[in-house]
Write a structure and sequence with these properties.
Oligomer: homodimer
CATH class of chain A: Mainly Alpha
Strand content of chain A: under 5%
CATH superfamily of chain A: lambda repressor-like DNA-binding domains
Distance between the termini of chain A: 18 Å
CATH architecture of chain A: Orthogonal Bundle
Shape of chain A: globular
Order of helices and strands of chain A: HHHHH
Number of strands of chain A: 0
Radius of gyration of chain A: 11 Å
CATH topology of chain A: 434 Repressor (Amino-terminal Domain)
Largest interface: A-B, 17 and 17 residues
DNA sequence: TTCACCACGCAGCTAAACTACGGGTTGCAT
DNA sequence: ATGCAACCCGTAGTTTAGCTGCGTGGTGAA
């Protein structure tokens, strides 16, 4: 549930930055497959990973857990 | 670095709630030793764990990553 | 002193973070 | 219509680190 939202959030931030999953993966230092798993909410990055993602996406870690309420 | 801040934050929230490490551990469903490791910044909880900690401490997950700037 | 609370090292288990390969779908160009 | 880029998704595998248990020892308060 939380993972799902987190993944969606990361995907949104990535698209906002006009990055492809492959580019994000390279910048973060992980595999493309893992980025896919994370964005789909199947896996969640470790705390160390969250830090890297936040850096690449130019946001604070807490912003990765900040969701807009009930869009749509 | 991030782990350290996270641990300090969790410790602060726990003390603010007048809880002992043992009580927090039981409420969260983990060992006392792990709570100690987390608060000292040696380990970080998984995302699922972060969720449990936040529930017990009555804050949002993002608040676990919200730090006050340069106290002291 | 005693007792509650916590730091800390060490050793171990296991879940999940993370990778690699391969096929399949969508969409958008040309 | 096809060619390609970007992504989904399953399967299977490796390795990290999340998490536990035990034991010791230190500190401060009653």
């Amino acid at each position: 549930m939380l993972q799902r939202k987190l993944g969606k959030r990361i995907g949104d931030l990535r698209r906002a930055k006009k990055l492809t999953q492959e580019q994000l993966a390279e910048a973060v230092g992980c595999s493309v497959e893992f980025v896919s798993l994370v964005e789909r909410g199947i896996n969640a990055p470790s705390v160390a990973g969250l830090e890297k993602f936040s850096e690449v996406l130019s946001v604070e870690v807490k912003d990765l857990f900040t969701f807009e309420h009930n869009k749509r």
